[in-house]
Amino acid sequence: MTFLNASLIFGLTAIAVPIVLHLIAKREPRRVVFPSVLFLTKRLETNRSKLRVRRWWLLALRITALAALAVALARPMIHRSLSLTWLTIALIMVLGVALLVMATVALYRDLPRLLIHSLAAAAAVALLTALLWGGYAYASGPQPTIDEAAPVAIAIVLDNAPTSAWKTVDDDHLTRMKEIATWMVTRVPPTSRIAIIDRSGTPAAFSLDLASAVSKVDQLRAIEVTSPISAKIDSAIRLVRTSDLESRQVLVISDLARSTWHTDLSDPALVTLLAESPQIQFSVFDLGEFSGTNRTLSLPRLVDATPPRGSPVTVAVTLELLESEENIPLPVTAELGLYEDDPTLPIIRNGVVQRPRLKSVDRTSVQIAPAGSSELKMTIPPLEVGSHHGVVRLIGDDALALDDVRHFTVQVLTPSRVLLVADNADEARSIDLAINAAPFPIDEAAAEYSVERITYADLPVVRLADFDAILLLDPPRDVISDNALQQFAGGGGGILICLGAAAGDEPLASDWLPPLVRRWRSPPPHTFLQPLRLTHPVLAPLTEIPGGVPWNLYRVQQYWQTEVDEPYKMLMRYAGTPHPALLERTISSESVTGHVIITTTPLPDLADPNNDWNDLFGSDAWPAFFLVRNIVERLTKRGAENWMSIVGRPQVVQLPEADSDQDAESRRLQLFPPGDTAPVPINVPQNQSRVVVGDVTRSGTYWLRGAGRNLGFSVNLPPAATSTERIEPTQLSEWFGAGAYNLVTNRDEIELAEIRSANRVSLRSPLMLLVLAVFLLEQILANRFYRSRRISTDQTSIGSAKAA
Amino acid sequence: MSALLSPESLQQIKRLDLRARMVVRGFLQGLHTSPYHGFSVQFSEHRRYNRGDDPKLIDWLVYAKTDKYYVKRFESETNLTAYLLIDMSTSMGFTESQSMTKFEYSTCLAAALTYLMNMQQDPVGLITFDDHVHAALPARSRRGHLGDVLAHLSRLKPAGNTDLPACISQVAAMLKQHALVILFSDLLPSHENQGPEEVIAALARLRHGGNDVIVFHVMDEAEVSFPYEGPVQFEDSESGETVTVDATGFREDYLRQLEEFCQQYREGCNHLRIDYVPLDTSMPFDTALTEYLLQRQSRF
Q: Does A35 touch chain B (CB under 8 A)?
């Protein structure tokens, strides 16, 4: 046993007061003449002994009350392992007191002396045993660690994930997190080692002093790029383990959002680590439910991120409303904004970052029910060539502001030059219509592709370098093996080769193409295309189509059997065969990359109606239509650049070509990140055409000044990061192992957990109960709660007189 | 009426005869509204002749004077000889409230009864005692006797020990004819060997002599209520014995002892058909007078 406030144990000296009053400060008796002394002397001795017993009881009760109060205020603690021992001692003491009470009752009832003495002796034995045992347990038992003045090594892990920005009128998760952390920091002794660890990438380290720890807590804000919580807890435990202080704690303050605590994210090593560190008190503070209204926007989906000039683009976002207690539909208004095209901005003016002004271009309103979702579509007006940045945002406030704004970037490109080589005019026209198809009549100025159609006879005289891509429909054998095409691809150009009947009947070996083995005629019911690399840019848009693509409806009767060798990759094959249907080769040289895509069956197959190769361009030929468009987009590298990203991922920005008259060795660029952050200077070598921005930690629009007008990109927070779904607190067992952690929801529970972890049991409550009971007994024994019996006696006397 | 008969109000009147008169008049006045309505005392020696009366009882002398028939009554039949037996021990002089001692209360009551009986032409005698009987006044019914009794009572001072059984026995031997003996005492013995049994035995002797007995057990208010708190040293007023006790803790036991003591007397007296009237000095006198009159009624 030991005491939290040991100094208060000196309060025990207060028991001297009743002792002194009892033994020394007796009142001098008043002397009165009284005729009825006869009635006093008869039972004088018995009465005196009863009175003495009663006064001793009173003295004992007063001493016990004062002593118990002093001890209770000193907050005694016993080691958990001795709980049973102390309980037994207490029971023996209670037995002793009960025997004493029985002896007293026996005395008052004039029961035989032998009985009284026996009871008193038994009581004395019991009390003596309890005292001796208690003394022995106090002297020899393990002492709980309760020294609150002793320094503590404590690591507080603050889960400042995006969901921690949850803020309603009644609740503010971030503020509460700060309050708890500050309270924890300020209550430990100043010499403690304190580590404040948040979800950022900052390495875990002890703060220099208490003030710096408090300061770090004050500066806490919700961040969008977070390190895994398991890594943070791991580093916190390892950090605290390194401390040589005896008392060590790790406290995790979190909202238990599923995005952070999903079981799949748990690290089994944590269970082992905690099991190996029993001396560390590990607690998880649950900030509680997300109560309030929250609207969420999905990532914006652009119908075409690289539209042609002057073409409107539709932006679609999905709006979701969190389930709330008020089950009434909510009107929501979304706004589409575009940053004005100002070549002088952004810039630092008077120390303040001036960004282009946001201009509202479209707006839509919906009525949305709780737990429901709605698709919002807005239109970006026709734009000029160049980068354009904008936002989709919800009007009004809700509990989580981070998911109310989404950013996008549209890159309006000039038309790509495409050389379409075909001997069959119908085939050439079909492809031309396919790649330039638009939902509105084709406008040459607004077309994505500038297509030039020639025949193979004219191919040798064409300057290939003038084109971004060459489409070879059913090329003859000599064209296929022409090395000029290989050089074109090596220079960054794109080539599509649609093999067909013109390639002849014999096998063909080429330096840069896969060997053509034979023309293969598939027996009925023939075969069809089967996609293999579903994430490939050519096939990925097709996989996103709801319901999939029914390739089996489009049969292939003939194709060229080829062998797949490196560096060719098979994107599609013919179902039921190992034979490739769609092949791609990427040719990289220096800083440019070219692609060669080969279809082993002709696209389209219109040359010879009597000799069908496939039905791909038959009726309702939308899959082949999309496939061709995707292939051409891939070859011309439209859409190859991703101008929209999510936080935490490095962004590659393709720089426009530098002016040739600049002699400097490097270009100096300025990156304007969102928020109040100052611009970051970036030096790019003159010959480098791309720059990698690694510090993408906030969602918003990033401008890159110095390389071109309006250059930049948009970054969004993934919707999953702001999901307010929580895990069940019991699921923490899967993270840390059952019983290895304390789940707390308020400060008192933290203190309780500390006491529990210190293997100590507080005797304060039972002692206060004892004080109360003893005080009441003292009052009853001293007859303070009851009126004097004199009145009743008088009444009895008079009554008897009258009766007589 | 009770206000008039209270010891506090009477204490303001110094003259015993006035006190006695006040008590009796107040009492008689109160009887008109008392439950004992219809009962009264015959004050005349003659009454008008009625049909059926024995003609031999007609007082012809009165007829000669008044020309009216009056019946002459026998004095021996109607007169009640009463003896007031007053304890004069030191303990009777005790008072806690400093208003009226037990002895004063007793003499006042005795005077009132004397006055009352004298009005009825009943002979009243006075006997005082402490450890032996002091021969006092014989029973007389003449009017001047009242003044003698009152004068004697007013001269008495409580002093010395008491030997109650012996004195009662002596009185029993003294009385030659049946009489009403009214005892005023606190019944407290001066010696431990004089318990209630001895006193009751002495009263039985008195009763067996054909006397009617009323015992007025007069106690001080403090003796009944024991109003003391804390440590108190009690000194016996007769023996001088001192006992130091914690009065608060002792009260219950004391009261139980007192109740047992009274109960012993109550039972003993009931057994002997003696009227036992416990009184304390705070009680009004009508209680005592009523007791006397009830006793008087029972004789006829």
A: yes
